[in-house]
Design goal:
767 residues, alpha/beta, Beta-Lactamase, 4 domains, five-stranded mixed beta sheet, 29 helices, 54% helix, rod-shaped, binds ligand C2E
């Protein structure tokens, strides 16, 4: 019944199947019309002379009209080239076929009796040809062929029955039944063939799509939508990807599924607009990544699809493949983030900072405004990192970045350049005051104490700033300008802000020239030694001199060691210079009374030299100074370099009988651990604590007390550095320091002055 078009079974999309079935109908339409007309003319030819001409002409006209009728039906229904054919249309076509059949009844029922038996047989033969041809050509419309058969053969039976030709009637009945059965079988086979052909084409399309996707990447599931973009034929994998039941999404608009909770708000992501656009334009697309807004989580799908058209070229929707690319997408985002953010602090990194600065500079060019670039360097961070470990250092940096971030306004971006260097880009600075204000706030906030892992850490910050486009038109020049300003702040001891000035370029240049001069200073004999007395705190008697290097250069004049020693360390000149100091100091000291010792400062770089101990031995043997009269001063920084054998070297020196003092104690976050490892002779408490204690600062007093107590328990001596006033001396003495060094007892003096001091063999300076 379904094949005939008399009933729609519950399962299967028969409207669609009929469309496949009747698609072939139009193909033979012309042939059918032509055959009908030719056969009609043959009939006219047959009956001319028997039947009045007007009857024949009238019949021909009727035949023509009935043949024309189906084409009107086709056109009116608008169902041509459609993927769905309603049953009503089929019945109309059958009716039209029935009408043609009725017209064909006329020759056998009305014309033949007017002629003879031969004519009747000929007409029947023509009708039989018509029915056979119809059955063969109307595969697509089996009911039509059936009606044609029924009507024409019915009429023939009626005619032969009238002429009592019962044998022929029986033959016609058999013929008709056989023809109907074979026609039906034919129609069924035809439909099956069409269906499998269509299915194959569909499969073909899918297979090629899948293959293509497979080659290009991995597709996970198929999806399909109809012409109105509703999801059809949901596969379990697709439903799984959508995180829903298949029944839930079947028939749901595809874009609604993707938009998720944004569907109602209409606030759709850009990727969905692109998808909608493609669907509207019926364009195929490949590897389109769309954001899918689920109820709980957002994911990303990569979709490829092509529009589908039926045999007649009508658009019937899209079919494609998709895969969940959330993970790779998230990874890509992470990588993109990594490229632009500092992992440790989460602040923008150098790349992002330079980009921001570049944008700010361009804005300045355009609007004639000013932008600022601040470079920030942490003071004393290195010693925290080196003494307390990188973990503490990292946590400290994280806290620094939090504080820095809290200071940023809306037009300011801070980031980390690397190490302990940070920077800020200010987009519109107005006058220079805003830069200075921010710089001072940064120094103030970053210099407050930090609590990290039960340690209270004190670090400071130095800032250098430059103003675009005045101090530089490009990112590079502006950064260099800020860097020079920062260098100056560091040079001045840190905790300061300096604005870039053109002279700074000359300072940097000066440093370069100074380095060249320093290289030649030794051969030109520009160095000399000054000796500063160290006295016993209780008796105030002179017990030692500290040798302090002096450099006088024709171009730079008197240069302070705190200025050129770091330069010499950077330029790896400190080793020959240090050797010279050691030899010269020993040579002077042999001329002094035997109970006066000499202290020589040794830089960490010297200590790392593998032959340092030999150098010391050589200096002692060459000058004949007793090892007990020499004391080497090192700072905590000697312990900082990992893998260096500083500890061993110090032990070897102690084994020679040479004394060892720990200089500037308290400025480098002493991890105290190495105090028990290396048996220092003396701990020198830094001048800042001496000053603090004299000013009544409890913290400084506590530290000096602790150091004195600890030194005593370890059998070490203590020296207080930089005592300038009587008050300071008294405070130190009361705190229990064993030795005192400072302007109060004597400034560094020349070797000649020391010699003349000993001229009278007097070893007490005061009292
Ligand atoms: P240091 O070893 O801590 O030397 C003490 C510094 O404090 C000296 O400065 C000294 O002049 C200064 N000073 C001493 N008493 C007072 C005082 O009462 N008030 C004030 N304000 N300052 C006082 P100087 O000579 O400028 O040396 C600075 C630093 O340079 C030294 O600090 C030492 O670390 C380094 N240095 C000096 N000579 C040498 C050397 O031959 N080799 C090495 N590697 N470093 C040296
Ligand atoms: Mg010293
Ligand atoms: Mg010192």
């Amino acid at each position: 019944m379904a094949i005939l078009g008399l009933r729609d079974p519950a399962e299967g999309d028969w409207d669609h199947l009929r469309a496949i079935q009747y698609a072939g109908l139009a193909r033979y339409a012309i042939l059918r019309v032509v055959t009908n007309l030719v056969l009609g003319l043959l009939v006219c030819q047959l009956f001319i002379g028997f039947v009045p001409a007007w009857q024949l002409a009238g019949w021909m006209a009727l035949l023509g009209a009935s043949l024309y009728f189906p084409s009107i039906l086709y056109r009116r229904s608008g169902m041509v080239n459609h993927d769905h054919v309603a049953r009503r249309f089929v019945l109309q076509l059958v009716a039209a076929t029935g009408a043609i059949a009725l017209v064909w009844c006329v020759p056998i029922v009305a014309f033949a009796p007017q002629a003879g038996e031969i004519e009747q047989t000929t007409v029947w033969t023509i009708l039989a040809a018509l029915v056979v041809g119809g059955t063969l050509l109307l595969n697509a419309l089996p009911l039509g062929a059936f009606v044609l058969n029924l009507v024409l053969m019915g009429a023939s039976i009626f005619a032969y029955w009238q002429s009592d030709n019962l044998v022929t009637v029986g033959a016609i009945v058999c013929f008709s039944i056989l023809l109907a059965l074979s026609g039906f079988e034919n129609a069924r086979a035809y439909l099956m063939f069409k269906m499998s052909e269509h299915g194959l084409a569909e499969k073909d399309e899918v297979v090629s799509l899948l293959l293509r996707e497979f080659e290009e990447g991995d597709a996970d599931w198929l999806w399909q939508i109809d012409a109105s973009r509703r999801i059809t034929a949901v596969s379990p994998r697709f439903a799984f990807a959508a995180g829903r039941e298949a029944s839930e999404i079947e028939g749901m608009p595809f874009t609604q599924l993707i938009a998720g909770k944004h569907w109602e708000s209409g606030n759709l992501p850009p990727s969905l607009h692109i998808l909608s656009d493609k669907l509207t334009k019926r364009e195929s697309f490949s590897n389109l990544v769309v954001k899918v807004q689920g109820d709980e989580r957002t994911c990303w799908w990569q979709l490829s699809a092509s529009p589908r058209f039926d045999d007649s070229g009508a658009f019937i929707g899209f079919r494609g493949v998709g895969s969940d690319v959330t993970e790779s997408r998230e990874n890509a985002e992470k990588i993109a983030r990594l490229a632009r953010f500092d992992t440790l602090t989460g602040l923008p990194n150098r790349l992002q900072l330079t980009e921001a600065l570049d944008r700010a500079l361009k804005e300045c060019e355009q609007w004639h405004c000013r932008c600022g670039f601040l470079m920030i360097d942490l003071d004393r961070f290195k010693s925290v990192n080196d003494t307390l470990g990188h973990l503490v250092g990292d946590r400290l940096l994280a806290q620094v970045s939090l504080r820095l971030r809290s200071l940023m306004g809306k037009d300011e971006l801070c980031g980390r350049l690397g190490g302990d260097e940070f920077a800020v880009v200010m987009r519109d600075t107005g006058d220079g005051q805003r830069i200075s204000d921010l710089a001072n706030r940064i120094i103030d906030v970053l210099s407050r104490p930090y609590e990290v892992d039960q340690h209270t850490l004190f670090i400071g910050a130095s800032v250098g700033s430059a103003c675009g486009t005045r101090d530089g038109r490009t990112v590079e020049t502006l950064m260099r300008s800020a860097d020079l300003a920062l260098y100056r702040s560091k040079d001045e001891g840190g905790g300061r802000h300096n604005v870039y000035e053109p002279q700074l370029h000359s300072h940097a240049e000066e440093r370069r020239v100074m380095e060249i001069a320093l290289r030649k200073a030794l051969e030109k004999d520009e160095f000399s030694l000054a000796f500063q007395p160290v006295v016993d705190a209780a008796s105030e008697s002179l017990i030692a001199f500290e040798a302090l290097i002096r450099w006088s250069n024709p171009e730079f004049g008197q240069v302070s060691p705190s200025r050129f020693i770091p330069l010499a360390e950077d330029a790896r000149l400190v080793v020959p210079i240090g050797n010279w100091v050691l030899h010269r100091a020993c040579r002077e000291a042999v001329t002094w009374p035997a109970d006066v010792r000499v202290a020589v400062n040794v830089s960490a770089e010297q200590l790392y030299e593998p032959d340092f101990v030999e150098t010391v031995v050589e200096a002692l043997s060459e000058t004949g100074l007793a090892p007990q009269r020499l004391e080497l001063e090192v700072t905590e920084s000697v312990f900082l370099r990992e893998g260096s054998r500083a500890g061993e070297t110090l032990d070897q020196i102690l084994a020679l009988g040479v004394g060892l003092s720990l200089d500037d104690f308290g400025t480098g976050y002493s991890a105290l651990g190495y105090l028990s490892k290396t048996r220092f002779t003396t701990i020198k408490v830094d001048r800042s604590f001496v000053q603090g204690a004299a000013n009544g600062m409890q913290e400084s007093i506590a530290i000096i007390r602790a150091v004195v107590a600890m030194a005593e328990s370890l059998g070490m001596s203590t020296t207080a550095e930089g005592a300038e006033t009587e008050h300071e001396v008294r405070v130190i003495r009361d705190l229990g320091c064993k030795k005192i060094q400072g302007y109060y007892y004597g400034r560094p003096m020349t070797a000649d002055d020391v010699a003349s001091l000993f001229g009278g063999q007097q070893t007490t300076l005061y009292g």
